[in-house]
Amino acid sequence: MEKMLCTYEGRFETKPAYFNQKPPDNLCLVIAIPCYKEPDVISTLNSLRACVPPSGDVEVIVAVNAPESASEEVLKANKESLRQLEHWKKFNSSSHLHLLIMGEERLPDKTAGAGLARKLAMDEGLRRWVQAGEDGPILCLDSDCLVSSNYLVAAEKVFSQKQVKLAHFQFSHNWRHESDPLLQKGIVAYELHLRCFIQGLKWAGYPFAVHTVGSCMAVRASSYARSGGMNKRKAGEDFYFMHKLLPLGGYVDLPATVFPSCRISDRVPFGTGRAQLEWKSGQRDLQTYSMEVFQVLKVFFDRVEELFQQDCEQLQIPASLQNPLERLSFGQRIRQFRKESKTHVVFAKKFWSWMDGFMVLKLVHHLRDHGFPNQPILKVSEELIRHYQAISESLDPEIKQLREDLILVNTRS
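RE: above sequence
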């Protein structure tokens, strides 16, 4: 593990170790939490404290952060967060929960943001595991989230299986706890959009159709280091991180739930907080990607196996995908993969590593903008339900529930 850390720190930009104290002898989980202008990080800690205790100790690393150009308002809010954290640490730490506090408030404006803040805490989590001489999990959480009571024990049990490298908790926005009816409607619609997108890709045959919510990610320390760690993107860091690791295998869903906040945020250009801001200001409506988008992708994905033996020109690729695939040098890539692959399995692995989540999202947006515009989210969710029933496969149960919830909040407004 020490050699792996040296390699990681030598190849990738990192800060010096923040903590010197030795980790607990029976460390079983490390949780990394970025905290920026957060009014109620203590609720997150109390939620963790209320969980069923795991068999070992848990370290919770909170990285209070801000850019160099942070306003007095931000610095004042962070100062209050630090005060609350120190107070909680002094009076509320339990025998199995250990709080470690980082203060990083002069981050370069060019890179300061969600990705760097998460990286600071996760890098420190990696060091804690190296010091402990173990290859345990780093759980990502946000400072405005609550968790289900089995959050800790579920993570401990799943990562006791050495083949598990990457995982994702379930998530559910507690819209009933939101006092603003408009934000209630917005968050239900946004979560339904997220779930329809992933279920649509899954139905189309995309092998890495999984959610990538930053506050729900979990990764084994060695996998984190070998993949180059967290990126410094100001937004979408979770999406890119997950899709970098998914092709490597070892992914599982975690049977516990994170409850993200429903609140507005202007910190990042997209994501839950931004969606709520746009919804509140009337810039977002109740629409999502049409079912036709996923139908086109399904025709394409169903023919990937044939590409191992057939030239692209012989394959009937949907006309609506030909232009974007040409721009991605599709034919050249396929010829390269075939040349480098002796079996279907090797070819498929190379293809799907190239056709990552970002590439698929590009195709989805091209289809949306060229002939398959977004459709009402209630219509799309109903079509998805019917398609899954037709093939007798299980559908994310939250889609049906959220659809009912959206109808309910619509009748209230």
